[in-house]
Specification:
Structural class of chain B: mainly alpha
Organism (chain B): Desulfatitalea alkaliphila
Number of strands of chain B: 3
Distance between the termini of chain A: 31 Å
Radius of gyration of chain B: 23 Å
Number of domains of chain A: 2
Low-confidence stretches of chain A: none
Strand order of the largest sheet of chain B: 1-2-3
Distance between the termini of chain B: 51 Å
Order of helices and strands of chain B: HEEHHHHHE
Strand content of chain A: under 5%
Protein name (chain B): Cytochrome c family protein
Largest sheet of chain A: none
Oligomer: heterodimer
Number of helices of chain B: 6
Shape of chain B: elongated
Keywords (chain B): Electron transport, Heme, Iron, Membrane, Metal-binding, Transmembrane, Transmembrane helix, Transport
Cofactor (chain B): heme c
Shape of chain A: globular
Largest interface: A-B, 36 and 37 residues
Number of helices of chain A: 14
Number of strands of chain A: 0
CATH class of the largest domain in chain B: Alpha Beta
Structural class of chain A: mainly alpha
GO molecular function (chain B): electron transfer activity; heme binding; metal ion binding
Chain lengths: 319, 148
């Protein structure tokens, strides 16, 4: 593929931030670290086990597939590690080893390498893996069922499932402090809004993630949740709750922003993000699943080539 | 392109992570507690999450074990799951050997005893009615326990 004699124009990303791909990936790892540490702090050794296994097997699959397919060994660029870590952060702390192993296989081999590797993935690999596996093995992604044997001293149910099934009253007593700090049933690293914000703002500040996508995602989600809440406050929980629970913030900063699956121009990025936020709330409030982020992101990944057509006309040329 | 040295470090880290994962998986499985914390029932009418710990603990609803575990609680024997006597499935459930320490087989294989879902419905709802709190009998109440 990477013949040295040819000049190759790769797929997106095209934003130049003056640094190489590995640096970007290692910075994403650093940015995800606070969330990972919170998860390990709350769920202990089982969470550590899932995260370590997820990163190690993602790298392992990348190594295997590039070796078998005789492609350049891309393990060193850190992208496999990022896929592994992000996928691990979405799982419940009690995820069995075979689920992690299959998940990273789907993410790295199917969602990434089979589409041509880094820069060519139409869907964010961890998101696609999560979506496929959660449809195949729904109960392993049911945080209430998976974490039933974990003794917690905070609200002992998955807030999004409760909000969907029992209405906003069921989650009215959950302190915002808990949602900020991560005292919440859910994915290992997806629960602490504060940790995700710190990581996300770091990525934006360093230029590894464009601000347009997360901001638009958050605005879309917040506005839609507000409308639902205003229409029927008893059924639909408020916007702040929705912003701080589930995968909202990990979605805004770490999932929706995948380079090759997201647009590169300002207006498309804004549309892409806003639609992601709106879809998330539509799925959460009127769809079949308590959490909508994963499917919303697949959807916006799908529409990415389309919105990316909205771009400035080249000057001095008849189109 | 990444250098060879860089990659060697990465392989080292990967193997280290793998070892940590294997050790953590092997040494710290999430145990099934003696006394349940939360119980998830997957029924053909959706799932039901029963918060055993909150119902039974002083910091929660402060009920005593015997409020629910109506037989066999006391000095000589710990509470057992309702399913031991109230079969969770129509075809029943294997009776554990330990029961025969005290019972003759014909004593405990009672075909008339209600199945577990009826026993739970009956007990959960009548107690809630008694306290005037929590989901009770009635067609509007199903969705307060059952998540479709």
């Amino acid at each position: 593929m990477n013949s040295p004699k040819k000049l190759i124009v790769s797929h997106a990303p095209f934003w130049h931030i003056g640094s190489a791909v590995p640096e970007r990936n290692y910075n994403i790892l650093i940015a995800a670290l606070p969330a990972a540490l919170v998860g390990i702090g709350i769920y202990g050794a089982p969470a550590l086990a899932v995260l370590c296994l997820s990163v190690a097997t993602a790298i392992g699959w990348e190594f295997l597939i590039t070796t078998i397919a005789k492609r350049p060994n891309t393990v060193g660029d850190g992208n496999a590690a990022v896929i592994g870590l992000i996928f691990g952060l979405l799982l419940p702390a009690t995820a069995p080893w075979w689920l992690v192993l299959t998940g990273t296989f789907v993410a790295v081999v199917i969602a990434k390498q089979s589409f041509g590797g880094i820069g060519a993935t139409p869907f964010n690999p961890p998101v696609l893996a999560y979506a496929i596996l959660s449809v195949a093995w729904r109960v392993y992604f049911d945080y209430d069922a998976q974490l039933a044997n974990v003794n917690v001293d905070f609200t002992p149910f998955y807030p999004l499932a409760a909000a969907k099934a029992f209405g906003s009253g069921a989650v009215a007593d959950i302190p915002l402090r808990d949602l900020l700090l991560g005292f919440e049933i859910g994915g290992i690293g997806s629960t602490s809004a504060l940790a995700l914000l710190v990581g996300g703002i770091y990525l934006v500040a360093r230029g590894y993630v464009r601000w347009e996508i997360p901001l638009a995602f958050v605005v879309g989600l917040f506005a839609t949740a507000s409308l639902f809440h205003a229409a029927n406050p008893a059924s639909y929980a408020g916007p702040l709750f929705h912003l701080l629970t589930g995968f909202s913030l990990i979605g805004a900063f770490f999932l929706a922003t995948d380079d090759s699956a997201s647009p590169v121009n300002t207006v498309p990025m804004l549309i892409y993000g806003v639609v992601g936020g709106i879809m998330t709330m539509l799925i959460r409030n009127i769809g079949a699943y308590p959490e909508g982020v994963v499917f919303a992101i697949l959807l916006i990944n799908l529409m990415n080539p389309l919105v990316d057509k909205i771009r400035p006309k080249a000057i001095g040329k008849v189109a | 392109m990444t250098s060879q040295k860089h990659r060697t470090i990465l392989y080292g880290v990967t193997i280290l992570l793998l070892v940590v994962a294997i050790v953590a998986y092997a040494a710290f499985p999430v145990p099934t507690p003696e006394e349940p914390i939360r119980l998830m029932y997957h029924t053909n009418a959706g799932k039901v999450l029963f918060d055993h710990q909150t119902h039974a603990s002083a910091g929660g609803f402060a009920l005593s074990c015997t409020d629910c575990h109506h037989l066999h609680v006391g000095e000589e024997i710990e509470p057992v799951s309702c399913a031991m006597c109230h079969p969770p499935r129509p075809e029943g459930m294997a009776v554990p050997e330990s029961c025969f320490d005290c019972h003759m087989p014909d004593e405990i294989e009672d075909p008339m005893i209600m199945k577990r879902s009826d026993a739970l419905h009956e007990q959960c709802m009548s107690c809630h009615e008694h306290y005037g709190k929590g989901p009770t009998f009635g067609p509007d109440e199903c969705a307060k326990c059952h998540v479709m």
